[in-house]
Amino acid sequence: INTNPWANVAAKYESNKFLISDTEEYICEADRSFIDAYNGKARVEERLQLNVPAYPWYGNPLTAKVIVLSLNPGYDERESTIARIIQNLPELLTAGYTEHLCRMLRFDVNGFLPSDEKHNGISDRDIANLHQRWYWIDRLNRALVNVRNCLTFEDVNKRFAVIEYLGYSSKSKPAKCLNSLLPSQLYTRQLIQYILHHNEDTVFIVARSESEWRRFLGDEWDDSRFIVSKAYRGQHISEKSLGEVGYAKVINAFKSK
Known about the structure:
The protein is about 40% helix and about 10% strand. It has helices at about 5-10, 30-40, 75-85, 90-105, 125-130, 135-145, 155-160, 185-200, 210-215, 240-255, and strands spanning about 55-60, 65-70, 160-165, 205, 225-230. The protein has a five-stranded mixed sheet. Strand 4 (about 205), helix 9 and strand 5 form a beta-alpha-beta unit.
């Protein structure tokens, strides 16, 4: 865990200019030769986009009680347009969010989304939700925050994280010509192994690519802790997608100390 290859990427996250860049690439140097070779062969929609932030995880997997395992971040031209809009906002408005993204790569955040404390009517969380187009906050509120579950959004936010199989964005699922694990993915596997052995009450929701995650984790796969979602495309968390037993495990994990 101490040999985090993403710390050097975080060092490039300066002001709000890294949200989308015309000059920088946000890549683990050990991955570069593999990705250059892959992008040189891949179709345009399958190429890895290196001029936007990398998201090997979101939130803090080391403190989360519920972790979604996904495939890789999607790249959306609309989100990139929003990033340029955010870059043109006063830095005072965006600094809390961009600092959250930087600290996130170092496991130095206390929740999935940043603070909701308002300054002049706008919070760091508002900027995060704008950048994400309210993707995760809407899903988490609909799925988990209700009277029956006795969970507030802050309960969920403090205990939720996402880990990506591949930390780089693309428009479409990367092609099979990326047929060997990147050095950064080997670190991801070590991270999950660490969580499995040190955070025994943490559960995982396999939101996408079950077969790839099974191969990736090998003997570490534990049916009692990996809950496979039936809603692959939308990453929806619900009793229907996780099953009654799986959904109950998730709720109980959020409530654990």
